[in-house]
Design goal:
Radius of gyration: 15 Å
Order of helices and strands: HEEEEHEEHH
Strand order of the largest sheet: 1-2-3-4-6-5
CATH architecture: Alpha-Beta Complex
Helix content: 25-40%
CATH topology: Aspartate Aminotransferase, domain 1
Amino acid sequence: MTPDAAPPPPPLDPRSLAGRLRALALDFPEATEDFPWGERALKVRGKAFLFLRAEGGVTSFSVKLPRSAADALELPGTEPTGYGLGKHGWVTVRADAGRDAPLETYAAWLEESYAAVAPKRLAAQRAAARPPAD
């Protein structure tokens, strides 16, 4: 860490929404965690597929959704990601702890985001490892 770099965020409670999203993301092939700007970013081969922040009772995260961004943006608590990323299919979700979080939906978005940035071979490896849908 360089002297002027921000420290990494505090560890996440594994039972929290942020902790569960982090665990799901780290299960992807070659997923790594990085802390640019003091933020939590989950990457595959240096490309981010999840930006994750937890503060108090609020979890916010951004994912790249090339297929389902329009549908995702119709749900409460979602918006196009700032810094021009929204134009490229990135969606930011803000989930309050008091609300039921649709973890299955979020997990599907993680899958889509990973597949959007991972090399095709790794995305195919992940798809093959997933249990079949009912």
